[in-house]
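User: My collaborator sent over this chain with a note saying "see what the structure looks like." That's all I know about it. Can you take a look?
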Amino acid sequence: MPSCSADRELFPLSWLAQYGYCPRRCGLLALDQAWVENAETASGRFQHQRVHTARVERKGGDLFLYELPVYSRTLGVNGKCDCVEARAAPDGIPLPYGEGTFQLYPVEYKHGVVRKREEEYHIQLCAQALCLEEQFGCTIPAGAIFYINSHRRDEVTLTAALRQKTVETAQRIQALLAQDALPPAKYSAKCKKCSLLSLCQPKWKRTAKGYCQSLWDLTTGEESP
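Assistant: Without extra context I'll predict from the sequence alone. Here is the result:
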């Protein structure tokens, strides 16, 4: 784990998922405060608003903590957990929200249907677990991504490899913020759904480079260095 720093400014936990999706998208959000709404982001925001109200619910011996604020000085992040299921467990930890001891199980809500390959969601969930572990002095072996549209959850085992990937992603974002420079644009299939496509213009940048290349070749009769 990276060293703790009480003086380091914390960045939003959600940026981990943004960086995992696309480093340049994260840079546009973090450095340029850029945001463009599209149909998909609007739908996701609306669905989150419907299910998210900060509260504590008890069902049997279990607690459900919604919109729970979390932070990690080690990772350098803060944010909120959509839901933390605190399951009654004799070997668990005490919480200030109710009597008993509990095993914590974070659940991140996402718009859409179950998607097994979206690692950025797993990184965001893992970061929430690392925050909870740091705040409450516990160990969290697993959590889940709950897909609102399909009403299904994808359980995620918080492996050592995933934890390391999460730490590395946080470090890369810290480096991005320190350098204050946007990552280069790289066009991929993900760009088609990105709400920041019009600002990023990944194809335009490639076309511009090719255009300059052709001008150089035409002028000098040789390939540019």
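A starting point for your reply to your collaborator: The helical segments are 15-21, 23-32, 39-51, 119-136, 160-179, 197-200, 202-220.
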